[in-house]
Specification:
- The complex is a heterotrimer.
- Chain A is of the alpha+beta class.
- Helices cover 32% and strands 25% of the residues of chain A.
- A 7-stranded mixed sheet of chain A has the order 10-12-8-13-11-14-15.
- In chain A, helix 4 packs parallel to helix 5.
- Chain B is of the alpha/beta class.
- Chain B has 3 domains: 98 residues, Rossmann fold (3-Layer(aba) Sandwich); 151 residues, HypD, alpha/beta domain 2 (Rossmann fold, 3-Layer(aba) Sandwich); 41 residues, no CATH class.
- Chain B is 37% helix and 18% strand.
- Chain B is globular.
- Chain C has a 5-stranded antiparallel sheet with strand order 3-2-1-4-5, with no helix packed on it.
- Chain C is α+β, with helices and mostly antiparallel strands.
- Chain C is 19% helix and 40% strand.
- Chain C has one domain: SH3 type barrels (Roll), CATH 2.30.30.140.
- In chain C, a hairpin with a 2-residue loop joins strand 1 and strand 2.
- Classes of the chains: A alpha+beta, B alpha/beta, C alpha+beta.
- Strand 9 of chain A pairs antiparallel with strand 3 of chain C, so a sheet runs across the interface.
Chain lengths: 354, 364, 85
């Protein structure tokens, strides 16, 4: 139990939550404010060894050797429909991916719908049909659900909360604190597409592009990967806060530093163009169909081959490596050979003009 | 002739070649101030400072309008945001900047209708589709944003969109340069002038400034090749004892600037005295609406009359903005002041010198 | 301040009396006001800031930089004492 108590130590709140008296949108950004809220409020009162491990899903012991993996995720997105997906596909894929990132076989989902009075039933049906399609693709069933309706104005159209359950084969260990010095860092494809697609779908910044959300279930690709490469250390989906925030989380959990090579990062030209225009950084934009993979360097090329053979990993790239034990820094080596430190996203990402 | 504008001004080979030349040319220490916060960010984002010899000290200037927008103007914006009749529109950067009481993001979380726009014209469109509301645009920025704001006012005027107005807070670069050069404490040897301000205004205004203060001024862009070219040009002048105005951004900037844009500004705006956060009142350093367009001034429309507000004594932003100290020399840096709980605007704005230092963890 | 990027004009139109264009930014298209660049035509590159064309960009390839490097090589040859190497 010693290591668990050490983890609890490490999750002591560094700063009080006192600066903000009310919840800001930034508390949902996935960045520093989100982490503060989780540590200083949720973990403070609800904390236990599973919650505090800070992974995408919890791994619970069971009697038959396999372990139970559980995750839950609430999905709010405006607008409900966006290029490349909708809230329904997002709600299925988000949770499927969280369970799969632990190396588990995803077994079942539950879903609860919080619906705003006045939502067209045709919209709801479109979303549910999209969920069915995503479930079929992920080979998973929604086994329980709930529906609540709020008064008009009490929620923004529709919120969907999903929980996911899966089984982790005995002996398999994949978690955010297992990155080792010398490991390779791989990402399964271009970065920032979901974030840019959402900004575009809101339609208030006057631009259009070909960018589509990458929202997709990754459990199939992960299963194939783990069949051929058993020594994966970390798998995580770089959702809110983007790749940079996710890698900082992993570096801190594992107590290592991570070096990225800027010219290896896969970023679509249209994503880069939108980010240049709005002063956004693709490394902090959300992804919903990507994974970060950290594994021994000796297995890296084989892993790339497996990922690239899959429809959701065609543009997988080796983007960096894990360095010695340290305080959890992530470095970017620029195309000029200079370096800069990447931190977590601070708060809500806002376009900047001047 | 086919156009070939997007050439590689991020070319690593050319950037490194320029760095090599900078290292070859320099013989003694020099202080170079980049006026524009966008340049500060680009320098740190690309790590250009790591390519420069130690003898070059880059001083990050006051060229972040978000940072120099006065507390009074921010309080005015907060007052307007709190008015249930008002939709306050703003560039994204202003939302996190702390006023005396709170910031616009927090105001929004309490129910204020605060909306981020990419262009001022979008704010006019919001006014058109919300005729029952008053839509105010928070008009911040240097000469760069002013033509767009002027065009939005003309658009509203032409189409009788009477529920649109602006909260004027625009500022001008040359008067601030004069203040910096007039400061006895400061030793700026050369300036990199803000390329996009110059795209609008040209650089003829800088000729007398360079001559009077014996200070080279280089009009500089924002890509690595642009910035290194600007630094190398400044260095050559310093080493050779010249004090001229040179243009390292000629694909976007001419001596006289964009005359149509200047005419647009003159049609709508006129110079006024303006208070700069951290620096104080600078005569004729801002732009206010001319009489013909006075009806679009939110200050008079809503009868805003704030009393002067003192700034936090812990925050040395004023000194940072004038290049008198480095952000790392501020006792509050990364202690009492961080991006999640900023004391002053330069820690908030993506272009603020303190924020840039914090994000790119200089000194660590 | 002043995020500004080059965009290529792919469409010119009028919005309620205000001259506008659509620019391509390399995979993304943005509406841009051209009230200050009335001479802009299809195919021109404009410098876009806050949805506004600040200027038409001239057709040159880092000319200032290349000129400078050329000059410096001459300068170094003429003043070996000022060169560190």
């Amino acid at each position: 139990m010693d290591d668990i108590s050490q983890k609890l130590e490490a999750f002591n709140c560094p700063v009080p939550l006192s600066q903000h008296e009310a919840i800001l949108l930034g508390h949902g950004s996935g960045g520093t404010l989100t982490h503060e809220l989780i540590k200083c409020l949720f973990q403070k009162h609800l904390g236990n060894e599973y919650l505090n491990a800070g992974n995408d899903a919890a791994v619970l012991p069971s009697s038959n050797g396999e372990k139970l993996v559980i995750s839950t995720d609430a999905h709010i997105v405006s607008p409900l429909f966006f290029p490349g997906g909708d809230i329904g596909r997002l709600a299925v894929c988000g949770t499927v991916n969280d369970v799969a990132m632990m190396g588990a076989r995803v077994e079942a989902l539950t879903a609860s719908f919080i619906i705003e009075e006045g939502l067209p039933i045709s919209d709801l049906e479109r979303i549910v049909v999209s969920m069915e399609k995503a479930c079929r693709e992920a080979n998973v069933k929604i086994v329980a659900g709930d529906t609540k309706v709020t008064a008009h104005g009490d929620c923004d159209g529709l919120f969907i909360s999903t929980s996911g359950f899966g089984w982790l084969p005995s002996g398999r260990q994949i978690a955010g604190d297992l990155a080792q010095p010398g490991d390779a860092v791989i990402v399964s494809g271009p970065l920032g597409n979901h974030g840019v697609a959402i900004v575009q779908a809101r339609g208030d910044l006057g631009f259009t592009s070909s960018v589509q959300s990458d929202v997709a279930p990754l459990n199939g690709m992960i299963a194939t990967l783990l069949e051929s490469i058993p020594d994966v250390h970390v798998l995580r989906d770089p959702t809110r806060g983007g790749l940079a925030t996710t890698l900082v989380e992993i570096a801190r959990q594992s107590g290592v530093s991570i070096e990225l090579e800027e010219n290896k990062l896969p970023i679509d030209q249209a994503v880069r163009a939108v980010c240049d225009m709005l002063g956004l950084d693709p490394l902090y934009m959300a992804n919903e169909g990507k994974l970060v993979l950290i594994l021994p360097e000796a297995s890296a090329q084989k892993a790339l081959g497996v990922l690239r053979a899959h429809q959701y990993g065609q543009k997988a790239a080796l983007i960096g490596k894990v360095h010695e034990k340290s305080s959890g820094k992530v470095w970017l080596r620029t195309t000029l050979g200079t370096t800069r430190v990447l931190d977590m996203l601070t708060s809500e990402m806002l376009p900047r003009i001047c | 002739m086919t156009s070939s504008i997007p050439v590689d001004h991020r070319s690593p080979a050319l950037t490194l070649k320029l760095a090599e030349q900078i290292n070859a040319v320099i013989t003694r220490p020099w202080n170079i101030m980049e006026i524009c916060g966008g340049q500060t960010h680009a320098i740190l984002q690309y790590g250009l400072d790591q390519l420069l010899p130690e003898q070059i000290r880059l001083i990050h200037g006051p060229g972040c309008p978000v940072c120099v927008t006065s507390l009074e103007a921010i309080e005015n914006a907060l007052t307007l945001a709190g008015d249930p009749r008002v939709i306050l529109t703003s560039f994204g950067d202003m939302l996190r900047v702390p006023g005396a009481s709170t910031d616009l993001l927090t105001a929004r979380s309490h129910g204020a209708d605060v909306r981020v726009v990419y262009s001022p014209l979008e704010a006019v469109k919001i006014a058109q589709v919300n005729p029952q509301k008053q839509v105010v645009f928070f008009a911040i920025g240097f000469e760069t944003t002013v033509p767009a704001i002027a065009a939005s006012i003309q658009h509203a005027h032409r189409n009788h969109i009477n529920n649109f107005s602006i909260l004027p807070a625009n500022v001008l670069v040359p008067p601030a340069m004069e203040v910096i050069l007039g400061s006895e404490a400061l030793v700026v040897n050369a300036f990199l002038a803000a390329g996009h301000v110059c795209a609008v205004m040209g650089f003829h205004e800088y000729l007398p400034i360079a001559e009077r203060h014996r200070c080279p001024i280089i009009v500089t862009g924002f890509e690595p090749v642009d910035l290194m070219t600007g630094i190398l040009m400044a260095l050559r002048q310093l080493e050779e004892g010249r004090t001229e105005v040179e243009n390292a951004y000629s694909r976007a900037v001419s001596l006289e600037g964009n005359l149509s844009a200047q005419a647009l500004i003159k049609e709508v705006f006129e110079p006024v005295d303006r208070k700069w956060r951290g620096i104080g009142l600078i005569p004729q350093s801002g732009l206010g609406l001319k009489d013909k367009y006075k009806a679009y001034d939110a200050v008079s429309r809503f009868g805003l009359a704030p009393t002067p507000i003192p700034e936090s004594p812990l925050c040395l932003a004023g000194k940072v903005l004038q290049g008198l100290i480095d952000p790392l020399e501020c006792p509050a840096f990364a202690k009492d002041c961080s991006p999640t709980s900023p004391l002053g605007a330069p820690m908030v704005s993506a272009e603020g010198a303190c924020n840039a230092y914090f994000r790119y963890q200089k000194g660590n | 301040m002043c995020l500004g990027i080059p965009g290529k004009i792919i469409e010119i139109y009028n919005f309620e009396g205000t001259p506008m264009c659509k620019v391509d930014l390399g995979g993304a298209q943005q509406e841009v006001c051209i009230a200050a660049t009335p001479e802009a035509k299809l195919g021109d590159y404009v410098l876009v800031h806050a949805g506004f064309a600040l200027n038409i960009l001239t057709d040159e390839e880092a000319q200032a930089t290349l000129d400078l490097l050329r000059q410096i090589e001459d300068f170094n040859a003429a003043h070996p004492e000022l060169s560190r190497d």
